[in-house]
Amino acid sequence: MTDSRPVVTRFAPSPTGYLHIGGARTALFNWLYARGRNGRFLLRIEDTDRARSTPEATEAILQGLRWLGLDWDGAPVSQFAGRERHAEVAREMLANGTAYKCFSTAEEIEAFRDKAKAEGRSTLFLSPWRDADPATHPDAPHVIRLKAPRDGETVVHDAVQGDVTFGNAQLDDMVLLRSDGTPTYMHAVVVDDHDMGVTHVIRGDDHLTNAARQIQIYQAMGWDLPVFAHIPLIHGEDGKKLSKRHGAVGLHEFAAMGYPAAAMRNYLARLGWSHGDDELFDDAQARDWFDLNGIGKAPARLDFKKLEHVSGWHIARMDAQALMAEIAGFRAARAEPALDATQAARLAAALPALQAKAKTLPALLEQGHFALVSRPLALEDKAAAALDSVSRGILGELTAAMQHASWERNELEAIAKSVGESHGLGLGKVAAPLRAALAGRSSTPSVFDMMMALGRDETLARLQDQAG
After folding, report:
1. What pLDDT, on a 0 to 100 scale, did the predictor assign at position 165?
2. Mean of the pLDDT values across residues 206-218?
3. Known active-site residue 244
4. Taking a C-beta distance cutoff of 8 angstroms, is the pair 267, 310 a contact?
C-alpha cells in the first residue's frame, strides 16, 4: 500500500444489541481520521451471526450514529449479503494451495485436544488433512482451513501498539468456511475490508490477536495490508473494564441523560487520544488535529465529572439553532413529545439567559420550565406563599404600568423599580411575586429575562392571572 491511496476507514459493529460507548468512540475515531483527510468513512454491519443479529439492533446502531452526528459514505454494507464472495475467496485459496479441506469431526478434534492436554502438549489443533493427497479425500462434510505458516513469526505493525509479534506455532489453521459453506467471521472481515478498499483498520485492542491471524489471509491472497491501529478499551472510574455496574454504557443512555451530541464527540475524542493539553474543542478542530499517533496505549477511564464539564462548555457556546436541535434529540431519546411551536419559540428566546449555567440539557430545561408551561400556571407552595394580598396588588400595578412599555429590558426594570419604591420595597422584594406569577416557581432565571422571552402579551396575561 502506498501513501498516495485515499484514506478509507470503516466501522463494523455486530447488530446484537445497543451501540456501546466503546463502539461509539471507535466509530468516532474512524470518522475523524477519514474526514480530516478527505477520505471515506464506511459502515459495515457484521451480521454473519444470524442467531444473534436482529434488524432492531441494526436500527439502534444507525440511530446512535445519527444522533452522535457521524455520517457515513454510501449505504451500510451487510456482511451476510457477501457470503458468496467470502466462499469464492476461500475456494481461490484452496486452488492456490494456501487453504485445505479438513474432514476432521468435532469428536476427533476434541479427542486430539484431550490427548494433547493429558500429555502436556499444546492443544492447538494440528489437522491430519493439511498435507493429505486430495485423492484420499472422502466424500464427507468438511471445512476449509487456512494453511497458516507453522514456523517463524507474524508481526502486526500497529500504529498505536507498535510492533506486536506472534509466533506462528501459536496460531492455528483457522476455519475459513464451515462445513455448511458459510464463512467464519474472521475470514469475512478480511475479504470485506479488502473489497471495500479499507486502508486503515482502527478498532479495539481486543482484536489485536485477530489481526495476526487476519494478516495471514491477506498474505495468502497477496493483498495489500491495511494500517492497523488497535485502541485500548474504555474502563470505568475504578480502572476495571467498563460494564453495566459502572452505570451508563450504551450511547442511548448518554443521550437520554442529556449530554449534547457535540459534547459527546468532544469527550469521546479525548477518551484515549490527546492533542497537547487541549481538552475543549469543536468538530473542525477535532478533524484537523486527530491522528493515530495521539492515541495512548493505556486504557482510558470514563469520568462523568469531566463529561459534565465538557457538556457545559458546549451548551454555553452553541447557537440557538444547534442547541434547539440537541434539545429535540434529547426529548426523542427520552420518548418525550416534541415541543410545540409556541414552546420552541419561547425557549429559543430564553436560551441566552439559560446557557451559561447549564451543564446538561435537563438542567437547562429545568431553568427554562417557565417557557414550556401554559396558563393557568400551577404554583409551587413557596411561590404561592409569595403572593399575599399586597403582592397581588403590586402585580396589578405592574400590569397597568407595563401595558404601554416599549418592552425593552431597561424600561421594564425601571417600571418594576418605580412601583416597588412607591411601596417602600426594593427590586428584590418585587421579584418574588413576579417569579411566582411568571413561572409558578420561586427559583427561576431573572424575571426580566423571562419577560423578554415570553413577550408582552404572555407576560401581561400571566401577571393579570395573579394580580389582585
Report:
1. 98
2. 96
3. yes
4. yes
